[in-house]
Design brief:
YbaK/aa-tRNA-synth-assoc-dom, 26% helix, 148 residues, 3-stranded antiparallel β-sheet, YbaK protein, 5 helices
């Protein structure tokens, strides 16, 4: 989490890191605990494609991600969720704690997140949540596409 904090401070991105006693395992659990709309939750998923790994930052309100849609956006044959051991190896973080920013992966952003003034997602530490403005995701990630 220190790396994430340093990046946010270096880029002068307004943010809050919210501590909580337990790991928030689902978007709904996070929304309930933080008292926010489900759509403000922003899990970071790591996807395996024909061309390597990609981060997908998606609104919790979306529900299931249509992997065929992601494959079409990326122009690849196959997309699947990366196995947990691959997520740890590629990012250095466990599934469920992958940070919103600071990954060295190409990134797809869900446009639904831009409806909100603040979104909430991973910090790399399961006992904390990052709160920031969604436009910061564009500034801090290597965005290659958007999910409509």
């Amino acid at each position: 989490m220190d790396t994430i904090q340093s990046l946010l401070q270096e880029k002068q991105i307004p943010h809050d890191i919210l501590s909580h006693p337990a790991h928030l395992r689902t978007a709904q659990e996070g929304a309930d605990y933080l008292g926010i709309e489900l759509g403000q939750t922003a899990p970071t998923l790591i996807l395996a494609t024909d061309n390597g790994y990609v981060a997908l930052i998606v609104s919790g309100a979306r529900g299931r991600v249509q992997l065929e849609e992601i494959a079409a956006i990326l122009g690849v044959e196959q997309v699947k969720l990366a196995p947990p051991k691959d997520v740890l190896r590629i990012t250095g973080y466990c599934v469920g704690s992958v940070p919103l920013v600071g990954l060295q992966l190409p990134c797809i952003l869900d446009r639904e997140l831009f409806r909100f003034s603040s979104i909430y997602g991973g910090t790399g530490d399961p006992a904390s949540t990052l709160k920031l403005h969604p436009e910061a995701l564009e500034q801090l990630n290597r965005v290659i596409a958007y999910l409509e």
